[in-house]
Amino acid sequence: MVFDWFKRALAQPAPAPAAAPTPAPPPEPEPPAEPEAATVPAEPEAAAPVAVPPSEAAPAVAAAAPPPAPATPAGPGVDEDALAWARQAYARLKAQQEAASQATAPAPSPAPAPAAEAPPAPVAEAPPAPEADPEPTAATAPEHEPAPEPAAPPVASGLSLLEQAAAQRQQRLQEITAPAEPAPVAPPAAATPATPAATPTAPEADAADPSLGAFDDTFTWSAEVLAAQGRSVEEVSLEEIDWLGRLRRGLEKTRKGFVTQLLENLGDDPLTPAVLDDLESTLLRADVGVKATDQVLEALRRRLNEEVVDPAEGLRFLKEQLRGLLEEPIRAGGTALLAPQRDRLNVWLLVGVNGVGKTTTLGKLANLAVRSGYSCLIAAADTFRAAAVQQVSVWGERSGVAVVANPSANADPAAVVFDAIGAARSKGTELVLVDTAGRLQTKHNLMEELGKVRRTITKLAPEAAVESLLVLDASQGQNGLRQAMAFASAAGLTGVVLTKLDGSARGGVALAVASEAGLPIRFIGAGEGIRDLRPFNSFEFVEALLAS
Which terms are listed as keywords in the entry (predicted)? Predict the structure, then answer.
């Protein structure tokens, strides 16, 4: 199942009564007849959205799965309407999962056939000896050997070094553009047992497909976050539920210190100036930044002067202010969700200092693009770090994405980008992801080299949509902000990818980057898995950051 994260609807957060659309009086007469026949897996799919009243929807779900048990601990602080909405979403996703499992069930049905094959076995005892003589395997071997033919065209004669280098580059370009034609040649070999070797590449990326877990606190929280954004039960997907659970777990370290101190400061009494002073130190310790902290506290003080603010209202107002800080650079850029443009060449350049996870982020972006239905190509322009090309190649294999690289040591990164853009044009590729070498923002010559790569892209593909994304390690805190400032001038940054949120207690650096550097957060990574990188959503980030 393909879920296009680049087309995901970023609905504006709706007020708490998002469950209002569920109570629809007209469909009330239908549920009484349906609960009896709800045992069929196909029916719950249509009945879930219709069975609006929680009193009737709850028993149907309770009979299908054992979720009601975890619902009891959530009772004291959870809205019943939101809980009923989450049950309906869970029932619908469960029905979808059961339908998918039944769709795959017919495949093993041919298993009984082997039982009939057992009797013919004794009859075939005589032929095996003569068949071993002709050695059919030797005939199949030459079919695989035509593959090494491309190695035959070596270019070497009495040419100068420059001419040899130009010939080698031309040969690499031909090899890159050639794979489009060998694809049809593969089918004859596909008929042979070689087919299983070609197929594992796709299942390898699909092996980590999310599965529906228990109806627990994580699922109900994820469902509430989606409902608060105006989603209906029919629009909830397992991909989103899975990602929200990963995001909440990834921000646990930041949340443990931040939320605990925040709730202690708010207490049960209305907000006072002393509480705001404690809140200021809490925000600064979370690396939110001085400018962002001043903006938030100034808004709270103005609100406090106008009316009495209780803790619940203060927390809601704080979330609203934090979302505003994160959304401001996104609105200024005019693009709510960064996505490759269809039928056009898109070049995304990933830059950053050493060790922030540029190559890993590039591999996850490639997987995300492929799963969203885009054609993708990777340019291994990190030609200085040892084994960088091999690492990129492994990520490309995991997602089935071609990698353009120069095998020679210390090759020119701009030359690799030149070859990659040429290959992308010949194949009609939509997205080219460029991996670059790590460099400190204080090294002027390396920053100039980065500018050369950017100029090469602009000169070679002026019609392409170019994005320069800075990869920041969340554990670096305020140092990441200084990196953003330096790279913004050299590489013409258009966005930020925040990584390693799961291993840091400084997740507030996202607010500092957005408010002080004025750069929009485009993607966030909250884990080491290939699915732990997703487009940034300010509402979901703040809710996960301040989840109680």
Answer: Cell membrane, Cytoplasm, GTP-binding, Hydrolase, Membrane, Nucleotide-binding, Receptor
